[in-house]
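Extended Data, panel c. Modelled sequence:
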Amino acid sequence: MTHALPFLDRLALPLIAAPMLRVSGIELVSAACVAGVIGAFPTANCQTLDEFDAWLTRLDEEAAAAPERKAPAPYCPNLIMRRDPVRVMAEVELIARHRAQLVITSVGSPASVVPRLHEAGCRVFADVASLHHAVRAIESGVDGLVLLTAGAGGHTGWANPFAFVRAVRRVFGGPIVLAGGLSDGVALRAARELGCDLGIMGTRFIATQESLASDDYRHMLVDSSIDDVLLTRGFTGLPASFLAPSARRLGIDISTLDESISVEEARRRYGGGANAAPNQRWTDIWSAGHSVSGVRAVPTVAELVDALVEEYRGTAAA
């Protein structure tokens, strides 16, 4: 099941290392690509357009320098559409100039960027959390869909992955990526059997040596289980999954969180602005998905991918 994605054949796994705000730095992305999985990152992780250009240049140079038989997997910028539209379109032009093979759009309609990216030969995947938004994305001309399901870390979906994938498959014959709750190679194999072309893992890659996460964050992931994941609107105004222990360590009583808070008010309280208390920035409240139960160590990206490959192949042989 390749659905017109020729680069799948040269991946070590049909897997994307998820784009994670403040976590997916250039070292993590590069290591993921070298290990044979797609390295994704939010363009917002680059402070300036020059930095974004430098990241893409480095990734292009690493791909060009590698032997053909060991060519890195593609990288995948993540465009957050609900940002400054001028900045977003400037990022699109850089992506087009570097001829990236794949882009993920999220938090807003991809319609404004699809034509330019297609003109540059780039495939566009839209991040969606409902069947309605999946249909809208298909109508905008995207090439693939990333299905954000219940259990994803950070801003999360609500739908059961089994039901969501099958519902989307009835209306879409193109590439589908499953996001949410994938913790190991067994889960990735199950996603493929379900009808997905790729899976996304985020939480497992936070707990790697190349990520930008702090040591305390990584250690909390190792020590936590699915029961420590808190689903709340209280910090961002949108449903999101966080580690409850990270909130408690800041003195926040999670039982009193306001689940009706608006995005604007959440940003004022926790967004790090002038009116937000220093110890109540939601960026210091660490995200994780249900797959945190699969985090037992802090390996390198290469070690993690090797373990996932073994699990994935072992499941096929069973």
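Residues 272-280 have pLDDT under 50 and may be disordered. This feature is highlighted in the accompanying rendering.
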